[in-house]
Amino acid sequence: MNNLSEALRQGLNTILEWIYPPKCMLCGSVMSVGQRIYLCPHCEGNLEIIGEPACARCGAPLENEENFCLKCRMQDFPFVSNTALLLYDAFTKSIIYKFKYGDKPGCARSLAALAYRHLAGVFDGADVMVPVPLYPGKRRRRGYNQAELLARELSKLCGAPVEPRALVRVRSTMPQARLNRAERENNVRGAFKANEKLKLKLILKGKKILLIDDIYTTGSTLCACAEAMREFDNVETRCFTLALAPADGGKYFES
């Protein structure tokens, strides 16, 4: 029954695409039917995919074969690693801005497909995916949590379930974008808690967790979430972000 429903859904989507052809989510050019990634070849070619070598902790690109960047060699983290797909340049910023603030939840499908094409092993190794939660008031105003939508689309590709209830955002925080490293850490410290009901049910005990978020800058939000994940018993927490941005006006390459 599920396979039939999925086939019917895909068939309906194909018909709708013939009637309303998909468009590139950056430049708006019409694309061919049946694409999973709504980016034309020109716009996709302008995206800076992060390759190797990259820091084994934060995911920042490196100029040599060192395991960790300079910042990560000087700091302890409550998560094992973060893997980022894209450098946060003008093109990536445009896509993520539309996804988060432009009422474009459909971007999640294309971004998940792009991430899975390049980083399938990151997602296939996860037992459960946990999106970074929004404060309830912000979610109501935006209409959706972009991290949760991304996680759900990734789940369709890799099969790992999504547990959006694992973390609770217990207080509202200031936007991180204009804060420096110390301000970011203070802003989100204690902002996340583990869901008490899930702790009692031992649902996540011993699981390999993949935290999902949109942008990694200093890692403050993911660190706060990973600290809260430690309240679950014996979990291993890794992270995935769509993009990686240099912190405090710095540079990417710091080896």
**Text of the CATH class of the largest domain:** Alpha Beta
Cα end-to-end separation: 53 Å
Strand order of the largest sheet: 1-6-5-2
Give the helix proportion (percent range): 25-40%
Taking the sheet with the most strands, its summary is: 4 strands, parallel
Cα-atom radius of gyration: 18 Å
Mean pLDDT: 89
Helix/strand-derived category reads alpha/beta
* Oligomer type: single chain
CATH architecture term of the largest domain = 3-Layer(aba) Sandwich
The CATH topology of the largest domain is what?
Rossmann fold
Proportion of residues in β-strands: 5-15%
User: How many β strands by DSSP?
Assistant: 6
Shape: globular
Q: Helix and strand succession?
A: HHHEHHEHHEHEHEHE
Unreliable spans are none
Q: Give the total of domains.
A: 2
Show the helix and strand layout.
Blueprint: H1 2-19, H2 41-45, H3 70-73, E1 82-87, H4 90-101, H5 107-124, E2 128-131, H6 136-142, H7 146-158, E3 167-169, H8 181-188, E4 192-194, H9 196-201, E5 208-216, H10 220-229, E6 236-244
Parallel strand pairs: 1-6, 2-5, 5-6
Antiparallel strand pairs: 3-4
Description:
With 255 residues, the chain is of the alpha/beta class. The chain has two domains: 1-46, no CATH class; 47-249, Rossmann fold, CATH 3.40.50. Helices cover 40% and strands 13% of the residues. The protein has ten helices and six strands. The chain has helices spanning 2-19, 41-45, 70-73, 90-101, 107-124, 136-142, 146-158, 181-188, 196-201, 220-229, and strands at 82-87, 128-131, 167-169, 192-194, 208-216, 236-244. A four-stranded parallel sheet has the order 1-6-5-2, with helices on both faces. A two-stranded antiparallel ribbon has the order 3-4. β5 (208-216), α10 (220-229) and β6 form a beta-alpha-beta unit. α5 (107-124) packs across α7 (146-158). It starts with a helix and ends in an 11-residue tail after the last strand. The model has no long low-confidence stretch (mean pLDDT 89).
